[in-house]
Amino acid sequence: MSVTEVFTAAYGAEPAGLWAAPGRVNLIGEHTDYNDGFVLPFALPQRTVAAVGPSPDGRWHVCSTLINEPVSFGKPARSEVTGWGAYVAGVVWALQEAGFEVPPVRIAIDSDVPLGSGLSSSAALESAVLTALVDLGGLDLPVEKRPAIAQRAENVYVGAPTGIMDQSASIRCQDGKALFLDCRSYEVEQIPFDLAAEGLAILVINSNAPHQHVDGEYGARRKSCEEAAALLGVPALRDVATADLPAALDRLGDDVLVRRTRHIVTENQRVLDTVALLRDGRVREIGPLLTASHASMRDDFEITVAQVDVAVEAALDAGAYGARMTGGGFGGCVLALIDADRADATAAAVAAAYEKHGFTAPASWVAVAGPGATRI
Ligand code: GLA
After folding, report:
1. What is the pLDDT at residue 286?
2. CA angle at 312 for the pair 311 and 316, rounded to the nearest 5°
C-alpha cells in the first residue's frame, strides 16, 4: 500500500499533502558537530515520506507502513510518548516550546531509509513531520532555524544527546551538493558534489553491526570533549587551532582526553581541507583525508567496530581512493570513494572479506546526493 492509501485506510480521509525528508551520509566530520565544528554531509535518495492532513478531534495521530503501532497524543507533555512515536511527539513538543501554535494533524509515515544503520532515519522522520507542520500551520520558521527544533526534539524529548548535523542535513541539503555546515553559526555553503561527472562514485556499505544512539558511548564521547574544552579554557574544542594542538595535548595530559581532543581538532581540519579540494575540483585527492578520518575514529576516538574496520580495509585493498565509517559509530555504514566502474568489484571484495571473518553479508549501494526536506 502507498502511504496515501495507508492514510486513507487509517483515517477515512484524503491527506492534505505529502512531505519528504531524506536520510544522510556524512562525507567527513564525525563527532565534530557537538564541538561547534564542521561537517560535510549529503542527503541520500532514501527518504521518509509523511502523508499529513488536519485532525478533527484536536489530537495528533500517527501510523506507519513499517510498524503496526499507531500512536495518538494530545498536547504532548515532555517525554510522554515513547518508542518511534516519540520522534513525532518530540517535534510537536519542541515547536510548542518555541512558542508556535502547532496544528493538530493525522500522519501516515513511509520510509526507505534503512533503520538503525547510522543513516539518520530518526532525523528524516523528525524533518518530514516538522516540514509538514510548518507548511500546514503557516509557521514563521525559516529553514535555517528548523534543524535546532528537530534537534531539541531528539535531545530533550527523546533523550539522545546528538549534535545538529543529521537534522541540518535532512532539512538543508540540496540536490547534487554536499552541505558544508558550521555547527556554531549554522552558516552553510552548498558544495557541488557531482561525482559521476568525474567518473567517481561513493559506495555505501552497511556493516550490519547494530548501532544505537541512546547509549552510553556516544554520551561518554561528548562528555570527554566537554571536559577537555573546559580544562583548556575554551568554549568548545572547535576553538583549538590545529597549530596549537601539540601544546593543548601537553596541557591535557590524560591519555583518553588527549586522544579524543586530537580526533576532534584534526577532524575539523580534515573537513576544511576536503572542502578546499572539492572547491578546486580535486575530488580524487580527498581520498586520503577520508581514510585518515577513519584511522582517527578507530585509534583516537575509539568508535569503530571490527565490521566497519574490515569493510574499510577491504575497500581500500580493492582500490578505493579513500574509505571511512560514517555516522555516530559502533556499527552503521562505511563509505568508499571509488571509480564509478568499480562499484560491483568493491562490493564483492567487501562481501568476500566479511565471509572470511564470519560476519553477516553487508548490503552495498552507490549513493548520489539528493535534495533536502520538501513538499512533494
Ligand atoms: C550521530 C549524531 C550526530 C553526529 C554524528 C557523529 O549521527 O546524531 O549529531 O554527532 O553521530 O558525527
Report:
1. 98
2. 115
